[in-house]
Amino acid sequence: MEQKIKVGIIGCGSIAGAHAGGWKACGAEIVAVFDTNTERAKSFAEQFGGEVKSDLTALLDCGVDAVSITTPPVAHADCAVEALKRNINVLMEKPFALNLSDAQRVMEALKTSEGKLMTAFRHRYLPVNQKIKSMIDSGELGEIVYFFNRFYGSNPAFASDWHSNPAVSGGGAAMDVATHSVDLFRFFFGKIIDRKMQCACHFKGAVEDTAMIQLQSASGVMGQITVGWTAGVGSDIVEVTGTKATALYDYKVIDELKIYRQGAAEPEVLKFPRTWAFPEQIRAFHDAIKNDTAVPVTAEDGLTNLQDIFELYATQA
After folding, report:
1. DSSP per position, the chain
2. Which of 178, 237, 307, 312 is the 20 to 30 Å CA partner of 270?
């Protein structure tokens, strides 16, 4: 019988459940969990399995093969460095680190580790986004002109929790949400050569809760991104427009892609499996560990994304 990968979950908040479900879907075993809130860790373990550990060291030293780091950003680097020192494989939630110096500590630890590190950009693994990527690459949409993206909704609790504490989060809505948006832009179109951002603080807190971003790729694609926590009615849309057609993905219909072709009266509607892509993302990491192959979303991808975000913040100065 093939040996199961033994997994530890570091941080037992809401996103951790999606990771645990993804690991279980791959046949991995959740053997240990840790959270600074012991009651939350106990509740998580009751639902997903695993022994509650008293601290990070106890989890890392219990024989895990891999960990999901699903803590707030302030803890990402320390957890990753300690895991990599032990040659443990790391799936790192976004953003890659709290700041660039922390990110460099992770990159240095990775150089001497036998463990792999993959950055968790799950939107790449949504079947619709993968289809859009293939249409871009094949030229089916024509020469790409515009990218539009909206990821915003109502998150009033973020006004008073760790999301609005820059010492824990590293930033506001741009750090929390636009990391995914900017990564999708790079995934679709490659290197970003120009960028700017405008922000607002409706919560009147220490970080931005709303941001509008403009990007341009080396290939000339222009992108416009809107993210935030304060919209009364949410919207999650990816739209790519080329000289031949437009691909429109509304996340409210997670399994559907509309293609508006030049000269056609009605859009073509393509159907896909219903998934939020956590299992697909974790399957890619799981298989890289099992087969000892390169991870598809690298630490360098995570570092570059973090650099892109901080360069956006710099345009506010």
Report:
1. -PPPPEEEEE--SHHHHHHHHHHHHTT-EEEEEE-SSHHHHHHHHHHH--EEPSSHHHHHTS--SEEEE-S-GGGHHHHHHHHHHTT-EEEEESSS-SSHHHHHHHHHHHHT-SS-EEEE-GGGGSHHHHHHHHHHHHTTT-SEEEEEEEEEEE-GGGGTSGGG-HHHHSSSHIIIIIHHHHHHHHHHH--EEEEEEEEE-TT-SSS-SEEEEEEEETT--EEEEEEESEEEEEEEEEEEEESSEEEEEEGGGTTEEEEEETT-SS-EEEE-----SHHHHHHHHHHHHHHT---SS-HHHHHHHHHHHHHHHHTT-
2. 178
